[in-house]
Specification:
Helix content: 25-40%
CATH superfamily of the largest domain: Beta Polymerase, domain 2
Length: 195
């Protein structure tokens, strides 16, 4: 799909979800400004609500669930029958009018920077980003990425912004359109040459 149409759809869905979110950002190829878009990725931190489980108990839940249910009932979004994903951290659906796949990734204040960077991509850049140095990757010694969070020397490291995430990896925070496998590999090679 052409970028302008994908931007319009992604902004529309993000705008509808925004009141149920602490923050929401368009990621993926739309954020990188790619001319040919295959899917839309949205990263969001949901606001939490309270609902009754039974007469005596309540539970917290993401308010985005209510909005997504309404969008499905209205026929705006539908479950993706090809790839079924509808968990608490990752939901995949289809924008009915266009057929465009919409992927929704939940984050929180401690991992927002990591999830946004990873979901912005591109894929080949991410592969280098998350690999250990002895496998040609960018992860510093002592840093691990586990279950969507960053750990340094066994302690969880908050990365509330992309800048925080890239700083934790001792990397510059390149603008999304400038992220590529070649760029990160050249940076790592130059850093190695200086040592």
């Amino acid at each position: 799909m052409e970028l302008e149409r994908a931007q319009l759809i992604s902004r529309g869905i993000a705008g509808i979800l925004a009141p149920a979110c602490r923050r929401i950002e368009i990621a993926g190829s739309v954020r990188r400004g790619k001319l040919d878009v295959h899917d839309v990725e949205l990263v969001f931190e949901p606001k939490l609500g309270l609902r009754a489980v039974d007469l005596f108990e309540s539970e917290t839940y993401p308010l985005t669930d209510d909005v997504l249910a309404t969008l499905q009932e209205a026929g705006t979004l539908a479950s993706d029958d090809k790839v079924k994903r509808w968990g608490p951290k990752y939901k995949r659906c289809v924008h009915v009018a266009s057929g465009l796949v919409i992927e929704l990734f939940a984050a929180d204040s401690e991992n927002w920077g990591y999830i946004l960077a990873l979901r912005t991509g591109p894929a080949e850049f991410n592969k280098v980003l998350v690999r250990q140095p002895w496998h040609g990757g960018a992860l510093p010694l002592g840093v691990r990425l586990v279950d969507g969070y960053v750990y340094r020397d066994g302690c969880r490291l908050p990365v509330p912004t992309e800048e925080d995430f890239f700083t934790a990896l001792n990397l510059p925070c390149w603008p999304p359109a400038e992220r590529s496998e070649g760029r990160i590999l050249a940076h790592l090679a130059a850093r190695e040459a200086r040592l």
